[in-house]
Write a structure and sequence with these properties.
Blueprint lengths: L8 H21 L4 H11 L27 H13 L12 H9 L2 H10 L17 H13 L3
Helix pairs in contact: 3-6, 5-6
Bound molecules: heme C.
Length: 150
């Protein structure tokens, strides 16, 4: 029997499949519509945008400059309250007028020195352990405690 192209069903099916694959491939590579294009661009755009100093259009507020020294209250809350809010280790408690009276009588300079250098032999370590606090910030925290304890 002569195997003719059109007589062989398997070959016909192969051709049909090949044709179908080509049509599918053409469909897949078709140009997206403008709408699809924006949607795609939207999905693949970078999350952040680089903006150079001086650019006016930077989206969002300019990076805030260093906000300056922390307030006495902030420093107290983060670095001093653990002891001075509870009396731990014999720390004079904020608001305890009697505990602070004699200390306040020594004057601000003495208290600032204690805040910055600590009180040797007691739980009052230098800067209350806040080693990234500036002297200025420690003094503000001392002021805050003194103001709240007389
Ligand atoms: C680990 C506990 C602890 C922490 C934290 C701490 N203190 Fe104290 N502080 C003490 C103790 C205890 C005393 C009492 C020392 C003494 O016997 O005179 C004291 C005393 C003081 C005094 C009085 C010192 C004097 O000369 O009478 C000041 C002022 C003071 N602390 C400031 C601060 C400041 C400001 C901070 C936070 C930046 C702070 N302390 C954090 C434990 C602490």
């Amino acid at each position: 029997m002569r195997a003719g192209l059109t007589e062989d069903p398997i070959v016909i099916i192969r051709y049909a499949l090949g044709l179908a694959a080509m049509i599918l491939a053409l469909g897949a590579t078709a140009e997206p519509t403008a709408e699809q294009r924006t949607a795609i661009e939207d999905r693949i755009k970078p999350i952040g945008e680089v903006c150079l100093q001086g650019d006016s259009e930077c989206g969002g507020a300019a990076v805030a400059a260093s906000s300056g020294p922390r307030s006495g209250e902030d420093v107290y809350n983060s670095a001093c309250m653990a002891c001075h809010g509870t009396g731990a280790g014999g720390a004079p408690v904020l608001g305890d007028v009697a505990a602070w009276a004699d200390r306040i009588a020594k004057g601000n300079d003495a208290l600032y020195a204690s805040g910055i250098n600590g009180v040797p032999g007691t739980g009052m370590i230098a800067k209350g352990g806040c080693m990234n606090c500036s002297d200025e910030e420690i003094n503000a925290a001392v002021d805050y405690m003194v103001a709240g304890s007389q």
